[in-house]
């Protein structure tokens, strides 16, 4: 099976799974990360099939506290059921999913981390963040300050200069918006 055909099949499966009661990190986020992987791979070295597969399934267990570890277990079993998926790549996909919110050591893990965090700098991600803060019980004021810290943290922890260059304008726009929110609470 050609890689593009396999990726289309994996996208369909991801859309099915990520549509099942996902409130924050849904299929729109998954596709954002997928596109970011593609952008990064125009300038950086990495395994395309491994990274794009990880993008499609990295948040399947986002409702769990340890969603990376839980997602990794789930995806390992899922990919074993797809005979067209190269079985020798499953462990690499699983490792990326497990490590995407932990320490990243390999080039693929670092690229994936960057692609995931790059999706935080858009309007939908802003809405997602505030929905999550509301669920956590934060006041609007607390959420504004937390959001400003979040976007600075995400940008500053990007591993590659490529990611920083690609996302810089969106980061600056998002930061200006966050600063306007915070300014409303300055006394």
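Sequence proposed for the structure above (187 residues):
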């Amino acid at each position: 099976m050609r890689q593009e055909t396999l990726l289309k099949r994996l996208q369909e499966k991801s859309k099915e799974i990520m549509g099942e009661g996902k409130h924050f990190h849904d299929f729109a986020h998954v596709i954002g990360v997928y596109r970011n992987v593609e952008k990064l791979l125009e300038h950086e070295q990495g395994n395309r099939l491994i990274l794009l597969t990880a993008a499609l399934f990295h948040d399947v267990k986002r409702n769990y506290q340890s969603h990376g570890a839980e997602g990794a277990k789930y995806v390992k079993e899922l990919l074993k059921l797809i005979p067209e998926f190269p079985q020798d790549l499953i462990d690499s996909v699983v490792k990326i999913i497990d490590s995407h919110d932990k320490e990243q050591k390999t080039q693929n893990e670092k690229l994936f981390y960057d692609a995931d965090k790059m999706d935080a700098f858009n309007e939908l991600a802003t809405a997602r963040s505030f929905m999550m803060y509301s669920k956590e019980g934060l006041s609007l004021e607390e959420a504004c300050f937390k959001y400003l810290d979040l976007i600075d943290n995400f940008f500053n922890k990007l591993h590659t200069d490529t990611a920083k260059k690609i996302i810089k304008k969106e980061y600056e726009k998002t930061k200006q918006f966050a600063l306007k929110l915070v300014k409303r609470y300055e006394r």
